[in-house]
């Protein structure tokens, strides 16, 4: 496979664009960051004319695939009417209504442009609501790149951004004891910005309970991914999130579920809808916009009221703009069609793909684990028989997987170099078959 145009454009891009990419993660793709020329459904085409079945899906947002006709039409129509006004408009209201109907914990929502911004707002709301400042977060989770929360490096592609960093905290290498303090995730980040962050191991009820009981007078919130998608797609232990809910409710601490990945991916109600949980606040982004910049915080009236009464400032020039809200409405509409049939289909296809991957690993005697929940999964090469903790995740052979992803690219399958796969509503049986055949060839070439 030739990457001549990608190589040429990457070199030229570096003359004008710092590092040649717009998000540091993208540098990790081997043999080089590929230049896209276009996408359609489940496939993306690069500037050399190579076509790939896409499981990167823009790091998650493309739940409907590339250039979905209904979504594209809605966005074009909105743009033609005026992309943004800085005034209120109907789309904003309609998206907010749809979000409150879809997300069980959301009496009201506030709109912003990225997952990072939604998390920033959720933390601010929690602090204002409780009058406390400390935040508990968990090792291996990722909540965006804001200075006040960016601490750890769940995957090697994120670590890349930290070269030159002092005292770095590497995935799997830190065995954060209960209450370890957070280290900056990048050079240029003030350690003081993280002074209120407490990092705990996840899925550890005892560590959570002990820290909450000892320090609840200072703790504003616990923030958690409902499934540890950023480090191994590890599911919560049975009862863990429920216990988190009980303890935070008892001790007056705000529970925030960061559903930037799981929202509109594990179902219309996100993970909390699927698991039957009611956090105080939820953040959604990525899949919500189907590839356009929209995110939201949803929560109970008592907390969201702090924005309404002016206690908490929620700002952003492009918040709730016409294009973003049209994208959100269209995405939710498409996903809701046929009583959520798209989720059932995506999940069935994903299960089939995962079964095929496991069979192939077993057939060629390669040790590996695939953790799946709904249309998202993490594949890793590891001697561990199960990966249910951040420590176990740290034992995977990340280099081997990156090589595998490179071989898959050669075979026409686009993967994130760290192992997280997304399946979209545009994928079809034939894509799954073709992917598994490509994998047969890639595994045969992967050194034992
Ligand atoms: N929260 C989670 C769980 C994420 O996975 C991400 C991004 O990967 C974010 C927040 C940040 O979202 P964004 O990249 O849109 O700022």
Q: Can you put this structure into words, describing what you see?
A:
This protein is of the alpha/beta class and 448 residues long. It has two domains: 4-67 and 340-445, Aspartate Aminotransferase, domain 1 (Alpha-Beta Complex), CATH 3.90.1150.10; 69-333, 3-Layer(aba) Sandwich (Aspartate Aminotransferase, domain 2). Helices cover 38% and strands 15% of the residues. The protein is built from 13 helices and 15 strands. The strands form three sheets. The protein has an eight-stranded mixed β-sheet with strand order 4-11-10-9-8-5-7-6, with helices on both faces. Helix 2 packs antiparallel against helix 10 (322-363), helix 4 (115-130) crosses helix 9 and helix 12 (398-410) crosses helix 13 (429-445). The protein is globular, with a radius of gyration of 21 Å. The two termini are 23 Å apart. Residues 160-178 have low confidence and may be disordered. Pyridoxal-5'-phosphate binds next to helix 4. Residues 114-116, 119, 142-144, 225, 230, 258, 260-261, 285 line the site of pyridoxal-5'-phosphate.
What is the CATH C level class of the largest domain, in words?
Alpha Beta
Biggest sheet record: 8 strands, mixed
Radius of gyration: 21 Å
Q: How many DSSP H or I helices? A: 13
In round numbers, the mean pLDDT is 94
Q: Secondary-structure element sequence?
A: HEEEHHEHEHEEHEHEHEEHHEEHHEEH
Number of domains: 2
Structural class assignment: alpha/beta
* Mass-distribution shape: globular
